[in-house]
Amino acid sequence: MTNHHEVLRKHAQLQREARKRADDELTTAARAQKRAGETEADTIARLHAEAHPSILKYYGIAAEGDQR
Is 0.85 topped by the overall pTM? Predict the structure, then answer.
């Protein structure tokens, strides 16, 4: 029988792995969208303002026309 604490530990591990993947995907998108003279933070802020698909995916929000 699986221990309750083991289940919680595994769940936390899966959440950390999912967050790391999401962070990596957002960083990759920000690098691809970076404009001359922008810092990574500037790029991410601009992507937020533009509601860029990578930002929507990061927060788990379906893009317009997306049937998730």
Answer: no
